[in-house]
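Run log, item B.
One chain of 123 residues. Sequence copied directly from the ordering sheet:
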Amino acid sequence: MITGVVTANREAVIRVPVRGPRGQEAQVEAVVDTGFTGFLALPAGLIALLVLSFAGTTQAVLADGREVPMDVFEATVLWDNQERGVVVLAVEGAAFVGMALLSGYRVTLDVEDGGSVIIEALS
């Protein structure tokens, strides 16, 4: 089970341990984003700090419908006490956990300042 908190801005935030290929690790506070279909989006500075492996470029569709090129990287996350290889998009601003990482899990939110975020496996 993964737990987090709902902020005063009504964002569901969890901590995700992210590791690069050389063993660098960071505890990342990431917003749960059900509109993001990918695995994980991280700020470019954090990607550089973790020395994540570049995997190419992809076209991404933003919430406003614009298509933009985005750099893609590879990382390992500790998700529900298990290591998982994930695809990471480089973004500006906050980190996001997307629906690909949440697949197979139930997400329960108490949407109030300080409310609980609970992510648990379906089976």
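Observations after the first pass:
- Helices lie at 44-50, 99-102.
- The mean pLDDT is 96.
Flagged for discussion on Thursday.
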